[in-house]
Amino acid sequence: MISDQLVDLSRLQFAATAMYHFLFVPLTVGMVWLLVIMESVYVMTGKVIWKDMTRFWGKLFGINFALGVTTGITLEFQFGTNWAYYSHYVGDIFGAPLAIEGLMAFFLESTMIGLFFFGWERLRKEHHLLVTLLMAIGTNLSALWILVANGWMQNPVGAEFSFVTMRMEMVDFWAVLFNPVAQAKFVHTVSAGYVTGAMFVLSVSSWYLLRGRDVEFAKRSFRVAAAFGLASALSVIVLGDESGYTVGEAQETKLAAMEAMWETKPAPAGLTLVAGINEAQARNDWEVELPWVMGLIGTRSVSKQIPGIHDIKAKNRARIVRGIQAVMALEALRRQRDDAAALARFNEYKSDLGFGLLLKKYVADVQQATPAMIERAVNDTVPRVTPMFWAFRVMVGLGMAMLLLFALAFWSTLKLVCGQSRWLLRWALWMLPAPWLACELGWFVAEYGRQPWTIYGVLPTHMSVSTLSVQNLYGSLTGFVAFYTVLLIVEIYLMVKFARQGPGSLGTGRYDYDLTLKELQHA
Question: Full-prediction pTM beyond 0.85?
Answer without folding.
Answer: yes
